[in-house]
């Protein structure tokens, strides 16, 4: 049996280990917000990876958004150096999961195996991918112990809330610099036969329209900020939304509807705050003097960042000139530029060959509609050779009864491990994929 066949059979034999590892990770409820149990999951990973010969660092991102003594932002980076110097391949997975929500038919933190699927919050996004990368790396080291270079595995916090207490903080300290790391694979759930090259851009803005408070029985003595915000929405519907829908990108964004520019009204509030849940009284009669909106604008590589904010400001300025007493404030909350790795980059071609060897077909090359931690690796770390590849179906993320298929994790672990064999052991993969798909 050659080494590649030996590796694939070993991964298949680790079915139970993969299921147990995934379940153990799910059973640590790393909810974000607020950022619970980050230290616990890092300690769990520390024990596992040290036992496999990795050197580990536990790193707290002190002072980042959300970091506190109650909810410290812990991360772990584990490194295994090979027999000789060479490139470093880094697998980065976020450890945090979103709120559970309602509608579950299983324990969201039970990690149950049912009909070949492991269920739980974070199973798909992305503890199944983290588990698969660990199994892949451990098995690769068993088969190719004399590999050159290094393997790193990280578990990082806060991806679900921007990644500023995780990958961004680490990148600022050089952990993703091209001098340290040469290839990055992020095992996000984007289907086992897809390579995600990057993501669209995002611009978030906070808009407030101003009015004048008055008695609700005499609204003519005041100035309703909610009506002013209504005028903003009406103008968006009339001019901005049609303009965005007409813009199409050459980026292979999935799903198809995200190949255009989009704008989401993330939140809207005007007037008095809603009473507490136990308040049974009535609101007082007032004309609202403030209305606030949060805008979530996703943009394409073909668009300019300055124009993204500029066209919203132009809309507001036109209203200011034509609508009596219209006053507003607009501020940027944050932005992320689009990112897309070259399809011919080394990590892309290696993973593509591994997909061909394992699945017998060429991968789809896609771009994510939303951002993930590649943005920090690219922008701060200056590391362009980065992709997302992992098991699971993205549509299941953040849903009730979230799950990851065990067969998908096994296949993805095989792909990840053969990618290591190609990049660090010089293996020529048995690529049976046929012509590339786009």
Structure description:
By secondary structure, the protein is α/β, with parallel strands linked by helices. It is 32% helix and 23% strand. The chain is built from ten helices and 16 strands. Strands 1-2-6-3-7-15 form a six-stranded mixed β-sheet. Strand 4 and strand 5 form a beta hairpin. Helix 1 (3-13) packs across helix 4 (123-143) and helix 2 crosses helix 4 (123-143). The radius of gyration is 24 Å and the shape is elongated. The two termini are 34 Å apart.
What is the residue-averaged pLDDT?
96
| Global geometry | elongated
Order of helices and strands: HHHEEEEEHEHEEEHEEHEEHEHEEH
Number of extended strands: 16
What's the arrangement of strands in the largest beta sheet?
A: 1-2-6-3-7-15
- Report the major sheet: 6 strands, mixed
Low-confidence stretches: none
| Percent in helix | 25-40%
Distance from first to last alpha carbon: 34 Å
Evaluate the radius of gyration: 24 Å
What structural class should be given to the helix and strand makeup?
alpha/beta
Instruction: Report the β-strand fraction as a percent range.
Output: 15-25%
